[in-house]
């Protein structure tokens, strides 16, 4: 049989392995157009912009009234406006951060004092208040607001970071799950391990570290203990699977129930919020403006990718999933590798659980519910075959983001949650369908 | 045999200009095939010549790109296996199509149950019983097919074809995995089918069988018809030449390199009733042939030496040093490797690339601190590709798509890279075409010349007699005979020991 090296485009390695990346990009484009809206700048930049606009229109000696609501963003905007105006030599008559009646009060006071008002610095909301129209004294005053522009809600930096931040936990757990699934197994216990680690860490900090006043050392120790226990649980699953040849589905199903039960028992079914501030660094802190969970996720993915594509262990994992017996007869230490894979899955579920606990600032046995299914969905959408032997780590990351982007997009468009579930189910099936078609093409 | 009366009728089967391509491969390039009623046609060809594709087209599993198929002069469209069955074609694939959990009669009538959703047990059982009597082999009716022997499963498949009223039965390597007696019985069945005017297409790599059973031979090479003739005007030599497209002087190019020094020594190896007190040794440069019937314990012995199964008792030593082998990993570390008999199931990760399969047993040597040295890996594999003449488009090619011979060469490359001292070859040429067989024999010679100890397990007696320096015969888990002077030995002599 003669073979040729030319292949059709969809069988090129990159397309084959990362074809879902194009699906993700397509989703981004679709949601960007769908959520395109008029946007009003807020915060410091908006303040500087408004100030310079006023100076331009009314001169450096302008007398200005600043009107905003009392939200954090508005206050920031007002403060920046005031600072910029005063720096330019303009006079700020009053800075109102509140509701319309507050503005009315301030305006009346200025009128009584006989002050002339050249301009009112407002934002898109406060500029629309009707309070200004009642005073003929204000008819000359210019109302200046930050310039609006059109931009998709979806593509706002805050939205994108939010999506990434929420996905990070699923994505981290999905690394271990990908490895497990590539060996031809499954790990249903990860969701319950999230709950378990959450409770263990919180209880440990509360009972041995003094709760809110716990030191950093205790926090680190608690995290370490939590992850270790999850790794041991993973190792336990691995032992049952390798030594006693019980199917992974059954072992981890049992493990899932046990871990959940244990989490409820340890926490007595309650949420445990007594955690120190240092604990929140991991889930809510930022480094160079990027939330820490995202950074953690990126680092772990890079490591996992190298392990799976460049190391002996990675080869072992793929070989076991492809043909366990052939791998064993080629000298692959099958049992040890399977143990390791379930340990990694357990430990990463533990790490994900710690990040979640940190994000939500409490330990809770209800955390992680159905996470195993979300994570498996991410792995499958990412192109890893449940039959084992095939799959890519970055595929899983793409899969996790496809699910997250669909969820976020639907939220922004106001799709109701029930319909969202239906759509996500359909997406999962579509992904598996693609995988099946791909396989059918390569087998003959 | 086709009589003049039959020739005046349209032939039972007429395939014309069959073409079939797969992505990157043209498997069939316009093949013609004619079969008459009551004729046994042998279909020969190296692996990858297109035999399997051709019979899959006939069985409705593949759709031809071009060409026509006529049954008794009428054009038929075989769009799926059901349609092929309806047209009177029964194909018995090498990997049987039986549901292991169902018993024989359930399998025979699977998909064609009558009775509006209810199974007519008594009717089906009676019919199955009739069929088995007709064939002349009793098969336990109520045993799940997974528990039947390979030969029994084959009988069930034949019964299934007959139950479908097949006029044409295709058998793909039916003799590959059954014992010589069972082959004899199969031939009787085929004779019987011939008497009943059923046409049979018989595929086999064993040329001796062809001469015994076939009326006519057609040979495929590279998806084309290489030759066709009636069996009387065929010679063994010519068949081989047609298959490989060149002349092979000597089927078994045996060289002897036996030295005095004993390398592998096996003492009293036992496991249950499968292997009982097996002892032997292999000298430097010696090719020890190990043969016997299927189930005699040959493969089981090899697996014990390799650590794939745990031995109940026994010692293994290499170069006088006692080995403790608890796993294949230990065995490989001690310099022993095993080329398994089941290449697809145990030898290869079919969906991985050929490069990854090659590297699998050699990861320690091809890595540094656990990280793969990709360049080294590619370079080393490139050497073997060249040396063993492995036909691959590139190193990333998926192993599944290779022919049997090339797959076997990938497995060989994997073990040669290990540079092991003891090589156990379990059926090294099973399902492999003549050309690749010859290359494997040359390789065995070369390994012997390097002073390795080689254990060659084979069911093919000509191969055992042709390539061994010494022969051991097993029966029911024990070694029942040894032949030191291989040159003077005959197949009958070996069979005698195998059945005693």
Describe the structure.
By secondary structure, chain A is an alpha/beta fold. Chain A contains 16 helices and 8 strands. Chain A has helices at residues 13-34, 43-58, 72-88, 100-112, 157-182, 190-209, 216-243, 248-267, 281-284, 292-310, 312-322, 324-329, 334-360, 371-381, 393-412, 417-442, and strands spanning 36-39, 63-68, 91-97, 119-121, 142-144, 149-152, 286-287, 290-291. In chain A, the strands form 3 sheets. A 4-stranded parallel sheet of chain A has the order 3-2-4-5, sandwiched between helices. A two-stranded antiparallel sheet of chain A has the order 1-6. A two-stranded antiparallel ribbon of chain A has the order 7-8. In chain A, helix 1 (13-34) packs parallel to helix 15 (393-412), helix 5 (157-182) runs antiparallel to helix 13 and helix 7 (216-243) runs antiparallel to helix 8 (248-267). Chain A starts with 12 loop residues before the first helix and ends with a helix. Residues 1-6 of chain A have low confidence and may be disordered. In chain B, strand 21 and strand 22 (478-483) form a beta hairpin. By secondary structure, chain B is α/β, with parallel strands linked by helices. In chain B, strands 6-7-8-3-9-10 form a 6-stranded mixed sheet, with helices on both faces. Chain B has a 6-stranded mixed sheet with strand order 16-19-20-13-21-22, with helices on both faces. A 4-stranded antiparallel sheet of chain B has the order 2-1-4-5, with helices on one face. In chain B, 34% of the residues lie in helices and 25% in strands. Chain B is built from 18 helices and 22 strands. In chain B, helix 5 crosses helix 6 (150-163) and helix 14 crosses helix 15. The A-B interface holds A 1-8, 11, 13, 310-313, 315-316, 318-319, 322-323, 325-333, 389-390, 441-444 and B 22-27, 48-50, 62, 222-223, 306, 308, 327-329, 331-333, 338, 340, 345-352, 356, 359-361, 363-364, 367, 370-372, 374, 391-394, 396-398, 400-401, 403, 414.
């Amino acid at each position: 049989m003669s073979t040729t090296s030319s292949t059709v485009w969809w069988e090129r390695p990159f397309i084959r392995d990362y074809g879902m990346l194009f699906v993700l990009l397509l989703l981004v484009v679709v949601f960007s157009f769908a959520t395109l809206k008029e946007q009003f700048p807020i915060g410091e930049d908006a303040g500087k912009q408004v100030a310079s606009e006023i100076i331009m229109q009314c001169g450096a000696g302008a007398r200005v009234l600043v009107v905003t609501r009392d939200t954090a963003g508005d206050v920031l905007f007002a403060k920046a406006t005031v600072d910029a105006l005063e720096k330019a030599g303009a006079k700020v008559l009053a800075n109102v951060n509140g509701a319309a009646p507050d503005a009315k009060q301030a305006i009346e006071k200025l009128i009584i004092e006989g002050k002339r008002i050249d301009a009112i610095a407002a934002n898109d909301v406060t500029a629309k208040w009707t309070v200004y129209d009642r005073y003929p004294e204000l008819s000359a005053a210019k109302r200046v607001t930050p310039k609006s522009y059109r931009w998709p809600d979806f593509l706002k930096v805050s939205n994108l970071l939010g999506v990434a931040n929420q996905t990070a936990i699923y994505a981290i757990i999905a690394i271990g799950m990908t490895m497990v699934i590539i060996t031809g197994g499954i790990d249903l216990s990860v969701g319950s391990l999230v709950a378990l680690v959450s409770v263990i860490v919180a209880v440990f900090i509360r009972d041995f570290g003094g709760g809110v006043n716990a030191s950093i050392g205790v926090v680190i120790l608690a995290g370490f203990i939590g992850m270790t226990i999850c790794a041991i649980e993973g190792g336990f699953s691995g032992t049952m699977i390798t030594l006693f040849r019980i199917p992974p589905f059954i072992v981890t199903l049992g493990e899932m129930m046990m871990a959940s039960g244990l989490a409820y028992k340890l926490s007595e079914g309650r949420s445990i919020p007594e955690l120190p501030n240092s604990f929140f660094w991991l889930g809510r802190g930022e480094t160079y403006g990027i939330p820490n969970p995202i950074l953690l996720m990126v680092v772990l993915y890079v490591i996992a990718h190298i392990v799976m594509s460049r190391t002996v262990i990675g080869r072992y994992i793929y070989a076991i999933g492809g043909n366990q017996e052939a791998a064993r007869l080629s000298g692959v230490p099958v049992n040890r590798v399977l143990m390791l894979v379930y340990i990694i899955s357990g430990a990463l579920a533990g790490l994900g659980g710690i990040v979640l606990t940190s994000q939500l600032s409490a330990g809770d046995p209800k955390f992680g519910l159905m996470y195993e299914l979300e994570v498996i969905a991410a792995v499958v959408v990412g192109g890893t075959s449940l039959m084992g032997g095939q799959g890519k780590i970055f595929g899983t990351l793409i899969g996790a983001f496809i699910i997250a982007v669909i969820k976020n997009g639907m939220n922004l468009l106001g799709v109701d949650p029930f319909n969202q579930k239906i759509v996500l189910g359909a997406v999962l099936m579509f992904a598996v369908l693609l995988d099946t078609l791909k396989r059918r093409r390569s087998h003959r | 045999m086709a009589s003049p009366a039959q020739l005046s009728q349209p032939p039972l089967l007429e395939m014309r200009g069959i073409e079939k391509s797969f992505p990157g491969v043209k498997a069939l390039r316009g093949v013609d095939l004619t079969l008459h009623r009551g004729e046994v046609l042998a279909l020969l060809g190296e692996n990858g010549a297109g035999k399997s594709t051709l019979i899959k087209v006939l069985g409705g599993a593949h759709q031809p790109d071009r060409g026509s198929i006529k049954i008794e002069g009428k054009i038929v469209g075989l769009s799926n296996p059901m349609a092929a069955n309806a047209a009177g074609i029964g194909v018995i694939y090498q990997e049987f199509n039986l549901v292991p959990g169902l018993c024989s009669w359930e399998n025979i009538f699977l998909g064609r149950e009558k009775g509006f959703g209810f199974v007519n047990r008594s009717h089906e059982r009676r019919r199955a019983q009739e069929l088995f009597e007709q064939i002349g082999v009793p098969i336990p009716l109520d045993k799940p097919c997974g528990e039947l022997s390979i030969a029994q499963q084959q009988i069930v498949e034949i019964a299934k074809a007959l139950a479908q009223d097949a006029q044409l039965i295709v058998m793909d390597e039916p003799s590959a995995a059954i014992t010589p007696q069972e082959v004899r019985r199969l031939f009787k069945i085929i004779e019987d089918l011939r008497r009943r005017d059923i046409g049979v297409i018989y595929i086999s790599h064993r040329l001796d069988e062809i001469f015994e059973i076939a009326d006519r031979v057609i040979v495929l090479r590279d998806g084309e018809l290489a030759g066709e003739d009636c069996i009387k005007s065929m010679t063994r030599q010519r068949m081989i030449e047609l298959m490989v497209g060149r002349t092979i002087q000597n089927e078994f190019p045996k060289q002897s390199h036996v030295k005095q020094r004993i390398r592998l020594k096996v003492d009293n190896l036992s496991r249950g009733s499968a292997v009982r007190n097996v002892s032997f040794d292999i000298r430097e440069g010696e090719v020890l042939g190990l043969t016997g019937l299927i189930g005699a314990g040959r493969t089981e012995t090899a697996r014990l030496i390799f650590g794939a199964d745990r031995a109940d008792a026994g010692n293994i030593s290499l170069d006088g040093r006692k080995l403790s082998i608890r796993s294949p990993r230990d065995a490989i570390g001690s310099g022993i490797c095993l080329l398994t008999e089941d290449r697809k199931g145990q030898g290869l990760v079919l969906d991985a690339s050929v490069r990854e399969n090659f590297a699998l047993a050699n990861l320690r040597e091809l890595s540094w601190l656990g990280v793969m040295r990709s360049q080294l890996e590619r370079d080393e594999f490139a050497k073997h590709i060249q040396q063993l003449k492995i036909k691959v488009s590139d190193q990333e090619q998926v192993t599944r798509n290779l022919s049997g011979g090339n797959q076997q060469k990938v497995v060989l490359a994997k073990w040669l890279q290990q540079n092991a001292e003891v090589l156990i070859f379990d059926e090294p040429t099973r399902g492999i075409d003549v050309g690749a067989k010859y290359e494997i024999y040359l390789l065995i010679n070369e390994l012997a010349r390097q002073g390795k100890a080689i254990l060659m397990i084979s069911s093919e007696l000509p191969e055992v007699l042709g390539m061994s320096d010494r022969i051991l015969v097993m029966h029911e888990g024990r070694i029942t005979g040894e032949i030191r002077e291989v040159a003077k030995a005959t197949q009958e002599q070996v069979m005698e020991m195998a059945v005693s």
